Amino acid sequence: MTGAVTGLVSLFAVRLVLGMGEGATLPAVTRALSKWTSLASRGAAVGITHAAGRLGAGASAPIVALLITWFSSRFWFVALGVVSAFWAAVCWWFFHEDPRQHPRITLAEPAELPAADPAGQIGSGPVPWRWLVPRVALLMIVYFCQGWTGWLFVTWMPSLLQKNCGLDLKKSSFLYAAMLFCAMIAEFLGGVVTDYLLRRTRNLQVARSRMIAASWILVVAGLVPAILVHDVVVGLTGFTVALFFLCFAIAPLWTATMDIAPNFAGSSSALMNAAGAVAGILSPVAFGWLLDRTGSWTTPFGFSVGLLLFAIVMTWWIRPGRPMETAPRLGRLAVAGE
Q: Does domain 2-337 have CATH number 3.40.50.300?
């Protein structure tokens, strides 16, 4: 539909519909993974799905460029739409809400999965928002801080590199691809490491909350010299380290939504994702406002570092090892919603 727009109003309407569809993708995937994966392998599963998104973003750029060269700027919208519709049909045919109903599942696999739900009642019915929002509130806060800094890599970080080091990152396809590859590897490794920590420590607090905090400490360690030192090697190295560990924290963050609300993983992850989206709307505007008011690039980036330091402290109170269903007074409500 984007390829058929004729004006600003139709473009806005189509993009709104597209955003509504895309916005539900990651929460829906998280909900599926909460039923299709065991506690011991959730991190790797989340890491693979998020890394695949980075891979798709990097691989689509040259494909779209070729389609525009061979056909037109509108044709690639149609081509990708057809491919997406085909892939949606494949998923509809292959996916089962209950993995035990899948014809290719082995006899041994169901024993490692969450409890069976033959009637499809677990997590169905009214979502207990009154209890869910407070339990996910800390994740929403820290993900807002993560999203604030993450969006600066897309919007303002290239401008800072150009100012400090004379490097125009927007014109360097190699560096752009390298950063996407770095993010992809980090998200995959983050999932693997959070599962490893859970196996070694048997402690969700360590595998999720402490890992997130350690990752963000390393993000700050990369950002500070990149902001303050006007050197191309230091700037690129610092921002690469910061980007790597910012993405490294993605898997434990999204996996924590399943740990905290296993029967409402879609809703809990949607709340967290919405907080990150709000940060994505506000951070570029706030950055520009601070830059205009102060004339200093250090101030808005320093504010982002301060938000991450605040988020690091907040992770101390995130309790992924205490599922929402076992929280006081929740039992009756959960039963009522089933």
A: no
CB 121 within 8 Å of CB 338: yes
Cα within 13 Å of Cα(317), Cβ side: 13
Which tokens sit at 132? 């869910």
Q: Are 263 and 125 a contacting pair, CB within 8 Å?
A: no
Q: Considering only 125-139, 154-168, 259-273, 320-334, which range has the smallest mean pLDDT? A: 320-334
C-alpha to C-alpha distance for 38 and 32, rounded to whole angstroms:
12
| Residues 168, 149: Cα–Cα separation, whole Å | 20
Does residue 121 surpass a pLDDT of 80? no
Kindly state the average pLDDT of the residues 194-217: 96
> Are residues 198 and 43 in contact, defined by beta-carbon separation less than 8 angstroms?
yes
Select, from the ranges 109-118, 157-166, 220-229, 243-252, the one with the highest average predicted confidence (pLDDT).
243-252
With vertex at residue 41, the alpha carbon angle to CA 35 and CA 46, rounded to the nearest 5 degrees, is 75
SS3 300: helix
- In degrees, to the nearest 5, what angle opens at C-alpha 20 toward C-alphas 17 and 22? 110
Average pLDDT, the chain: 81
CA distances from 304 to 32, 87, 157 (A): 33, 38, 12
CB 196 within 8 A of CB 229: no
Stated as kind and residue range, the H or E segment containing 284 is helix 265-294
Instruction: For the chain, give the longest Cα–Cα distance.
Output: 64
